[in-house]
Amino acid sequence: MKNEVNRALVAKKKLTILFAALTLSVGLWAANSVITFTSTSNLDLNPNAFLDANDQVLTFTIDYDESTHAGTITVNGKLVKIAYQAFSNCTALTSITLPKGVTSIGGHAFYRCTALTSITLPEGVTSIGEDAFLNCTALTSVILPESVTSIGEAAFASTALTSITLPEGVTAIGESTFSQCSALTSITLPEGVTSIGSAAFSYCPLSSVTIPANVTYLGHFALGNNSSLADVYVAWTTTLPTVEINPPFSKSSINNATLHVPFGSLELYQNADVWKGFGTFVEYDPLPNIKTAAIAAVNAKIAESDNDNVKAIATSAATAINAATTIDATTTIAEVNTLKRLALAAIASAKAAYNDGKTEVLGSMGDECTDCTAVKVTNGTTTVTLYNATGVDYEVIED
């Protein structure tokens, strides 16, 4: 009997050890991160390319199919950071999708990946290092997640970008960030931007630029050497931003361009050295322009999403912004900016929720509308409810 009990205990112990080993194995497997890519040949990566949250180097394996030019990189652990020079000089890389969980792209991470045409960054990425995509001469478009708050100097310089929308959390555009993007004709700057660094958009053929009212610093040559510039919209009414000794529009054709200024501030700009060189001055009510920029930012989210519910929120937000009208223009501008900021936050949250497979992500409208959806967003003391196109309405409540 004693032997049978011992055998049973030994068997139980073995079973426990086996179960623990299986659990550990499954846990390790589940923690792995997978990057998908396409390239014209196999990749030769920096062995220190991938880091975890503690900056520990993670090992990886590459599986590449020469017949399809597609491959996967399996990172052994929880990938959090794409390290410095991770894919630098990978001239065969044509596209790449980074997995959820990545929060930062290191400096020079994709430097001189000259065949790279597209990259998918997951929601959750907060920082993009200096020179990260410098000289990616085939890169025509990038969708930056709303989570991005920091973009390093020259991060997208000398790329083939044609347009770019910066997330609302970005407050500073560093030196040469988009310099020499020779196809960049459109840029949407978030209202929270406070500084635009030296040569940030130099040698870019931008035809129209709207500089947010919160900008307090313009670096030298920030919008320099641009012969395509036709319209610049500004919103300062009393205090103009600090500028460097060399003007931000140096060697740009502002003598043929129009500077659009708020009503009542014409003399302020005509007497300022940085601005008086514009060929034409036009006073304007800033609300239509701000509305257009806000709607464009929201519509960009419609274009990049394939989820009908997310599209409904974005469509609703754009309609609500367009409907914002009051007698007091100042109040209306603040209202439009609030709608845009909270709408983009709502869209980002909905996208993340749907990507996680959740089904209940939108606030219920109850009896207000039985066949349409809505989302209610609260940020600080402000609450916004947005309805979709079948029951368009909105409300802004300040506590």
In short:
The chain has 399 residues and is α/β, with parallel strands linked by helices. The chain has five helices and 23 strands. Among the domains are: 31 residues; 110 residues, no CATH class.
Describe what this molecule looks like in 3D.
By secondary structure, the protein is α/β, with parallel strands linked by helices. The protein is built from five helices and 23 strands. The protein has a five-stranded mixed beta sheet with strand order 3-4-1-6-8, with no helix packed on it. Helix 3 (286-304) runs antiparallel to helix 4. It is globular and about 65 Å long. Residues 1-30, 357-373 and 387-399 have low confidence and may be disordered.
Overall pLDDT: 80
Net shape? globular
- The residue ranges in which pLDDT falls below 50 over 5 or more consecutive positions are 1-30, 357-373, 387-399
Which bin fits the share of residues in helices?
Answer: 10-25%
Index terms:
single chain, 399 residues, alpha/beta, five-stranded mixed beta sheet, 5 helices, 23 strands, disordered N terminus, disordered C terminus
Topology, element by element:
Layout: H1 2-31, E1 33-39, E2 50-51, E3 60-65, E4 70-75, E5 81-82, E6 93-97, E7 104-105, E8 118-120, E9 127-128, E10 150-151, E11 163-165, E12 172-173, E13 186-188, E14 195-196, E15 208-210, E16 217-218, E17 231-233, E18 242-243, E19 258-262, H2 266-270, E20 280-284, H3 286-304, H4 308-323, H5 329-355, E21 374-379, E22 382-387, E23 394-398
Parallel strand pairs: 5-7, 6-8, 7-9, 9-10, 11-13, 12-14, 14-16, 15-17, 16-18, 17-19, 19-20
Antiparallel strand pairs: 1-4, 1-6, 2-5, 3-4, 21-22, 22-23
Helix pairs in contact: 3-4, 3-5, 4-5
